[in-house]
Design goal:
Layout (H helix, E strand, L loop, with lengths): L4 H8 L3 H9 L6 H14 L5 H8 L4 E6 L7 H14 L3 E6 L4 H11 L6 E4 L5 H7 L5 E4 L7 E5 L1 H14 L4 E5 L6 H16 L3 E5 L6 H14 L3 E3 L3 H13 L9 E6 L2 H5 L5 E4 L2 H16 L10 H4 L5 E4 L2 E3 L10 H4 L1
Parallel strand pairs: 1-2, 1-3, 3-4, 4-5, 5-11, 6-7, 6-8, 8-9, 9-10
Antiparallel strand pairs: 10-12
Length: 343
């Protein structure tokens, strides 16, 4: 005969409702009680009936996670962190990839939204107007996209861009460029605006390249445009674009960092393994995955006495969490060798 919640409660010495909370919403149960219940459940071989629970509660215990490009090394650490956090809350994650296609993203939101209790959208490419109406009443959390309608987790790329401009200026570079990434990217727009402000404050010239596909090939193709600007320092949309720029510059006879200093964004394994090793703006992807799931769970399971709804509503408006960034200096940036010839 199958082991029931009542059997686990009897063996644990707690009420059935406590067992239910320990298994479905463990963060609401004291650690000592939770560990005792989980140990007893494992010993007895208890297996929760998720289908029956979904019929009773109206919840699937599933979350949707939609990313722009799973092949981009920026996303896997965030995905792993989100899945780990979801399991802690007793949820599973359905993962989907839009391949940087806004139409595919909109369709995925509609279809996946019918199978989950809430969605996390990472670096969405849809306009805010479309995002606001596409999710409906489903709780939604956005990562790296500011919105009045949804809770958001932002990585402070603007601060990182400012640090990058200051770093390049300190190395003697007076002409800079920024490769802004794909159209509709919040990160790209923040990167450009912050770089423009920082460059203007220091009397530096800044050229804008883009939109640039957020890939190695995109960076390689942009190398010629970069050389035509006369810039000796560039901030790339991400580490993939930065590595592509280095390859494209080398193909055109320009060395990094001897002729051009290159700064990436992400601090991914790609940048750490490239040669030269990449100076980059480190993005807190693991912390972002944790924070996004925490916000989503708060919306799905609001405290007693509060209604459900969107993640923003559950958090008292459009909740916004901003995570810090840092500049990691490696080998792809160096002092300008011949300042007079670069002006």
């Amino acid at each position: 005969m199958a082991v029931t919640l009542r059997d686990v409660a009897r063996a644990s010495g707690v009420h059935v409702s406590t067992v239910s909370r320990a298994l479905s919403t463990p963060h609401l149960v004291r650690a000592e009680t939770r560990e005792r219940v989980l140990a007893v459940a494992a010993e007895l071989g208890y297996r929760p009936n998720h289908t029956a629970r979904a019929l009773t509660t109206g919840r699937t215990r599933n979350l949707g996670l939609i990313v722009a490009d799973i092949a981009n090394p920026f996303f896997p650490p965030l995905i792993k962190a989100a899945q780990s956090r979801a399991r802690l809350h007793g949820y599973q994650v359905f993962l989907a990839d839009t391949d940087e296609n806004p139409r595919a993203e909109e369709e995925l939101i509609r279809t996946l939204g019918q199978q989950v209790d809430g969605l996390v959208l990472v670096s969405p490419r849809l306009s805010n107007a479309v995002l606001s109406r596409t999710g409906g009443d489903l709780p939604v959390v956005l990562v790296n996209r500011r919105s009045r309608a949804h809770a958001t987790v932002l990585m402070d790329v603007a601060h990182g861009a400012t640090l990058a401009v200051e770093h390049l200026a300190a190395l003697g570079h007076r002409r800079l460029a920024v490769a802004t990434g794909p159209k509709g990217s919040w990160t790209g727009s923040q990167l450009r605006r912050a770089a423009e402000r920082a460059a203007a404050a220091r009397g530096l010239a800044l050229s804008v390249l883009g939109p640039v596909p957020p890939t190695e090939d995109g960076g390689t193709a942009a190398a010629g445009d970069l050389l035509r600007t006369g810039a000796t320092g560039v901030i790339a949309y991400n580490d993939l674009v930065a590595v592509g720029l280095i390859e494209g510059l080398a193909a055109r006879g320009a060395g990094v960092p001897g002729d051009v200093s290159v700064v990436g964004v992400d601090d991914s394994a790609t940048g750490r393994l490239s040669r030269p090793r990449l100076t980059t703006i480190a993005m807190p992807t693991t912390a972002a995955g944790h924070a996004a799931v925490d916000l989503l769970i708060q919306a799905i399971e609001p405290p007693d006495g509060e209604g459900g709804g969107t993640a923003g509503a559950a958090a008292g408006g459009a909740a916004e969490t901003t995570l810090g960034t840092a500049l990691i200096v490696r080998e792809s940036t160096a002092p300008l060798e011949h300042p007079a010839s670069r002006l």
